[in-house]
Amino acid sequence: MAALIVVALLFYVLCAYVTLGASRPAVPLDVGYLSGSSSAGIFENGSESWAQYTPYFAVEPYSAPPSGCQITQVNILQRHGARYPTKSSHKAIKAALKKLQGVSQITSPDLQFVTNFTFDLGEDDLVPFGAQESYDAGSQAYERYAFLVNSDELPFVRASSKARVVQSATNWTAGFAAESNGVYAPALSVIISESSNDTLDDASCPALSSSSSPDAETAAWIATYTPNITAALNAGAPGADLDADDTQALISLCPFESVANEERSEWCDLFSNLSAFAGYEYWGDVDKYYNTGYGQPLGPVNGVGYINELLARLTDTPVNDSTSTNSTLDAPGAATFPLGLTFYADFTHDNLMIAVYSAMGLFPQATPLNDTEANPDRTWLASELVPFAARMVVERMDCSGSDEPYVRLMVNQAVQPLAFCDADENGLCSLSAFVESQAYARNGGDGQWAECFE
């Protein structure tokens, strides 16, 4: 096992700064590629409503710890940076474009650019902008938490084994090192295989992997919000005969083209004019809610393993978990899961982060998301929960006047109220109360993990 981990680590470190585009030459993911500019603002208005394909943005300004409190440990769970479409999305986009570009004449002025449009994006892999998002996150992490670091106490970094996740982790460590002027250079210490138990991926539950959800719910919403958009496209390109799924695929060209080319895509203007993005954003909300969120019975249990690892770190006690943890990697005393450190950073996927949020009790919904009518007052927004390079940060701190540590949790810098552990107005709850509140995780998902194998 240890030998396999080392081999995998060496392989991924060698390719850590390379994007292997399926349709274009390899692009070096040079650190500092965008001169530190990785905000969603470069893509102009509306770019914070691209669902899970939204470029990273801070939901709120960072709040310093309350007076009298000192951070003693930080835990970061971070999504990989911006990527190309997945293989299935890539195929759907190509099919829709073939229909649209196959018409004899495009009559709409807004669609004229399509005639000469070339779709040359790769599949699955990190794009340079996504590498920069992670690099900037590492730089910010050093700037914010440098007081936790010394030559003997560097961040302990892990990543799930998908190439874009590993590359995000190594770009984060590069940004961290650069911000320290090369004094502190953390390494990616552990890569967890996605073909076995992995607390940084949602593939350890076979029944979830074989489930059709959220297909039914997302299909219902796509059929609800796209008809007028599809009709407008077909009117401007007679004979294209686009359907709802084609429209959904074409809308996704806006975020994917934008992050790949580092400038606002013409597709964004087209679909902004067709008022598509409110519906598209809600599609992402529904997708995540019914994939590994509250709407999927076997979704939250996929976050239990990571939460139990988090509790072990916060309390400096061995991991107690029988779900998605790798018992070899997390064994007491193992170098692959050290305790007693001040800084941990883990790199993962959006679906795993959603599972963690749901298992923990974050972003609860009074009623399930409706797949035919959007609730304008919902707090479940994929663009704010899991944009590219999303991060959940858990700070442990000591506060004057108390013998017990406290916990504060932020998602994309927004301090979470943690009502489930009676947090105060600053979002602080005692460590013991936080641990107690995580009964679902501590109890192994209340028996739901067994259902993963039925």
Structure notes:
By secondary structure, this protein is of the alpha/beta class. The protein has a single domain, classed as Rossmann fold (3-Layer(aba) Sandwich), CATH 3.40.50. Helix content is 37%, strand content 11%. The protein has 17 helices and ten strands. It has helices at 2-14, 87-101, 128-145, 163-179, 206-209, 215-225, 227-236, 244-251, 253-261, 266-273, 277-289, 304-315, 350-360, 382-385, 431-437, 439-442, 448-451; strands at 18-19, 27-28, 69-79, 156-160, 188-192, 343-348, 391-399, 406-411, 414-415, 429-430. The strands form two sheets. Strands 3, 4, 5, 6, 7, 8, 9 and 10 form an eight-stranded mixed beta sheet that branches. It has a two-stranded antiparallel ribbon with strand order 1-2. The longest helix has 18 residues, at 128-145. The protein starts with a helix and ends with a helix.
Short descriptors:
454 residues, alpha/beta, Rossmann fold, eight-stranded mixed sheet, two-stranded antiparallel sheet, 37% helix, globular, disordered N terminus
The level of helicity is 25-40%
Summing up helix and strand content along with how strands pair, one would put the structural category as alpha/beta
Within CATH, the superfamily carries the name Phosphoglycerate mutase-like
**Which residue ranges are poorly predicted, with pLDDT under 50 across at least 5 consecutive positions?**
1-40
Number of helices: 17
| Total of domains | 1
